[in-house]
Specification:
With 141 residues, this protein is mostly helical. Helices cover 74% and strands 0% of the residues. It has five helices and no strands. Helix 1 (2-26) runs antiparallel to helix 2.
């Protein structure tokens, strides 16, 4: 389970960072249906792209820790879940979005429970491993 957690956390980080770069670089052209939204929405889209890049880098940071910190995974997964809830709220207020946005909503609601479930797998695995004993160095007093 610890290996699966590390892989999933890293995959989430790389995906989010790539999505952030994509939105930052393309602005409103990165979102279906927003092509005529104008400068204000383009500015917002590029800002959110930078924030999403940072969010992805936080996932990558967590994946590179040993063990992967369960608190960080829970917080990051909670933020992802909150984004999915925001999409549901938008659907309730404004109706169904473009179909790809619905797919994203499903992912944002389905993946966090998996991360919550696996969040402490690496910490548990590290606690179960016997401590590493260092050999005495004859050159050191």
């Amino acid at each position: 389970m610890a290996g699966l957690l590390k892989w999933l956390v890293l995959a989430m980080g790389v995906a989010c960072a790539a999505i952030g770069v994509f939105h930052f670089a393309l602005g409103i052209d990165s979102v279906p249906g927003e092509g005529s939204a104008g400068a204000t929405v383009d500015s917002r889209e590029r800002y959110y792209g930078a924030v999403f890049l940072g969010y992805g880098l936080a996932w990558i940071w967590a994946a590179r820790q040993s063990p992967v910190p369960s608190t960080a995974v829970r917080w990051l997964a909670g933020i992802f879940l909150l984004g999915g809830i925001g999409r549901l709220l938008s659907m309730a207020v404004h109706g169904a979005p473009q179909s790809f946005q619905i797919v994203l909503t499903v992912l944002e609601l389905a993946l966090p429970p998996l991360y919550f479930w696996l969040s402490d797998a690496d910490e548990r695995a590290a606690a179960a491993r016997p401590p590493v004993r260092r050999r005495a160095d004859p050159a050191r007093p």
